[in-house]
TrEMBL record:
Residues 120-426 form the EcxA zinc-binding domain. GO terms for biological process: proteolysis. Pfam families: DUF4953. It comes from the Bacteria. The keyword Protease applies. This is Zinc-dependent metalloprotease. Transmembrane segments: none annotated. Keywords: Hydrolase, Metalloprotease, Protease. The keyword Hydrolase applies. GO terms for molecular function: metallopeptidase activity. The lineage of its organism: Bacteria, Pseudomonadati, Bacteroidota, Bacteroidia, Bacteroidales.
Length: 527
């Protein structure tokens, strides 16, 4: 049935006329969700009337405000009556330069898939569709929905490349996730805009149905609450797509992350990197400006490198993470399987610890002023710091005591060593430079585990000193020593790599002497 008092959003008269239809569509797209709750035409968008008795600042009217600003953002607040929980009104705001943000996202993620995104000037239809997506997302907030960063994890990665499936179902089950666009799709998949853009999905429809359905059979709110809880439990047991995580992607569960896609970050982001490489192959053409200007190139290049960093950190979150369960009769937390964590370590080995030099071609670096040596070093070092942090090692170690299927600490250290400690035999000397830096960085963090400093924090020091972690790290240091001795023996005496391994060996021995004292030589690695 049609409600007596539908939800009405008025469009700010300052809004550029060409965007009004897309803003209205973003509002009224939610009618599919309200239909699932039993209402027809429940939410409507209207242009602001020429009525002197109405004011945009009047709290009786919900408005989508247009803000002429360089800020690249939009937001959807709501005012709630604390007595009843009723949402009374909302003043959604979108800043003019959110269009710049949308352009960067779409070119970097979907430029290889959509030829319309291969220019710095999008046509009105494409930009309008992007604005419509933002409008729908912010309206979702204003009608009561929070971010659900777990929504995209409900979609199997390979389905994101299945044209028929993804165009029918969308790449995420909720527009309230930060799922952005389908960066997993490849050019040969020939997926249209319908399979690249987010849309109102099954989670959104379920959430609106749960929150808005009229239930006249209940006179007692406590009985209604019990029935609703049972309904949610039953639904979630049968359909994992309806799962909600309210941690804004900041918890330990790798399924709940901002701006990721699919049920496996490693597989999804491998595809994402393939598309980033395609963007880099064409970035000079797509951002070309007259008169030797490179501001557009710099803007998009910054976004490409930021996207690569997101892919890296999304994968890293799979290491030492844990699954969160919020259904009755289930463990509150489950441990990630060893195989998934190993896959994440191997991904980092391929895509970060082998320096991503493809991301820094000379013809782009020379026009943008980026310093590849510094940036690659800093990114590699920061991830090594995460992998060998006291908290990470303790998490891996303590988890291994609770589950036979979890990652054993010695296996973890060996896998991280394999991913990071590459031989110095690359034909590109710049790559070998990064490998030498990684060797030194790695050994420095291992030393920190042998001799924790006060800057690591009292809790970290206590966890390490009272557990077997130092024993595992001590054993690992023996492995490093053996490897360094082998590489030193295989190196040509007097060259740079020989000197590098000689210094590493000396440093390993100093670490042992500092920890074991003068008997370090008697308990070295040749037992």
């Amino acid at each position: 049935s049609e409600p007596k008092n539908p939800i009405i959003y008025y469009i700010d008269p300052a809004t550029p006329k060409k965007w009004i239809p897309y803003l209205k569509a973003g509002v009224e797209d939610w009618n599919t969700a309200f239909e699932a709750a039993g209402f027809k035409n429940a939410i409507i968008a209207k242009e602001w009337p020429n009525d002197p008795n109405m004011s945009l600042d009047d709290a009786r009217y919900s408005v989508i405000r247009y803000l002429s600003s360089e800020t690249e953002n939009a937001y959807g607040p709501r005012i709630v009556d604390p007595r009843s929980g009723e949402i009374m009104e909302s003043h959604i705001c979108w800043y003019h330069n959110v269009m710049n943000l949308l352009k960067k996202w779409y070119m970097v993620q979907c430029g290889p898939l959509d030829k319309r995104a291969r220019t710095m000037t999008f046509d009105d239809k494409l930009m309008g569709s992007l604005i419509q997506f933002v409008s729908s997302h912010e309206v979702g907030h204003s009608i009561g929905l929070r971010h659900n960063m777990a929504a995209s994890s409900a979609t199997p990665v390979e389905k994101l490349r299945d044209k028929a499936w993804v165009e029918a179902n969308g790449h995420t089950v909720s527009i309230m996730d930060y799922a952005r666009f389908n960066y997993v799709a490849q050019p040969e998949d020939r997926i249209s805009e319908k399979g690249l853009f987010p849309r109102i999905g099954v989670y959104d429809k379920w959430a609106i149905q749960w929150g808005y359905r009229y239930r006249p059979e209940f006179k007692d709110p406590y009985k209604e609450k019990d029935v609703l809880r049972a309904e949610v439990t039953k639904k979630l047991r049968g359909d994992h797509r309806l799962w909600f995580v309210g941690d804004e992607g900041k918890g330990f569960d790798p399924r709940s992350q901002s701006e990721d896609l699919g049920d496996n970050n490693m597989k999804a982001n491998e595809y994402g990197i393939k598309n980033l490489k395609r963007v880099m192959e064409n970035i000079l053409t797509w951002t070309a400006q007259p008169d030797g200007e490179y501001t557009d190139l710099t803007t998009i290049y910054n976004s490409v490198r930021a996207q690569h960093l997101k892919y890296t950190l999304q994968v890293q979150k799979n290491i030492g993470g844990r699954y969160t369960n919020n259904l009755p009769d289930l463990k509150v937390h489950d441990y990630l399987p060893r195989s998934l964590q190993k896959e994440a370590v191997e991904w980092l080995g391929r895509n970060l610890f082998v320096a991503p030099l493809w991301l820094y071609p000379d013809e782009v670096v020379s026009r943008t002023g980026v310093k590849p040596v510094d940036e690659i070093r800093d990114r590699q070092s920061s991830v090594v710091a995460l992998l060998l942090a006291p908290g990470m090692l303790y998490n891996i170690y303590s988890t291994s005591l609770c589950s036979s299927e979890s990652y054993a600490l010695d296996d973890y250290l060996n896998d991280v060593f394999t991913a990071i400690w590459k031989p110095l035999n690359d034909p590109n000397e710049l790559e070998n430079n990064f490998r030498r830096q990684l060797h030194r960085t790695y050994l420095g963090f291992v030393e920190g585990m042998i001799k924790p400093s006060s800057k690591d924090g009292a809790n970290a020091n206590l966890a390490i000193s009272r557990s077997d972690i130092q024993l595992f790290v001590e054993q690992h240091l023996d492995k490093i020593e053996e490897s360094v001795k082998e590489q030193l023996a295989a190196s040509k005496e007097g060259d740079l790599n020989y000197r590098h391994y000689a210094v590493l060996l000396r440093n390993v021995q100093k670490i042992k002497e500092g920890y074991y004292g003068k008997d370090a030589d008697t308990r070295s690695s040749d037992k």
